[in-house]
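thread from #wetlab-drylab

HS: before we spend reagent money on co-crystallization trials with zinc ion, can we at least see a predicted complex? here's what I'd submit
DV: go for it
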Amino acid sequence: MIKKCDHAGCTKAGTCRAPKTRDLKEYWFFCQEHAAEYNKNWNYYANMTPNEIEAEWERETFGAPLKDKKTANADAADYAKFINDFLTGRTSFDRAPRRALPGPVMSALKTLDLPVTATLRDAAARYRTLAKKYHPDTADDKKSAADKFAKIAAAYEILKKHFGKK
Ligand SMILES: [Zn+2]
């Protein structure tokens, strides 16, 4: 017998496999449309605790864990919400039009070279890339890297606050 799509309320056949966990031991079964949506948002860090996510990222980025766990907690919560909303059919992929963004948010997006439609996930991903590039511990030109890193970190703080308000 053919299993139905695991997405809530979907009656199509679940013919596409999508990994539930990063060790690929368990799978969801979705119809093509829902598998595509799910895969688009698939997160390598699924099912890791916030501390594990952060420790792994820090090891990859700096070779050793740093102290602040807030970033990872926000990330993991964001991902858990996405999965929950996705499975209950509440995730809207067509975003409602945004209201005009406050000036500091616009500057922060510009600093991180992100479009006005960027999400917190986009900001986190960009922050990680840039933080890796400009972290004073890993950069060649330590003085200018420190300045740039401070700007990037400040911009990301602004975006986290902005997205957190919703
Ligand atoms: Zn479906």
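DV: The pocket of zinc ion is lined by residues 5, 7, 10, 12, 30-31, 33-34 (CB under 6 Å).
HS: ok that's useful, forwarding to the group
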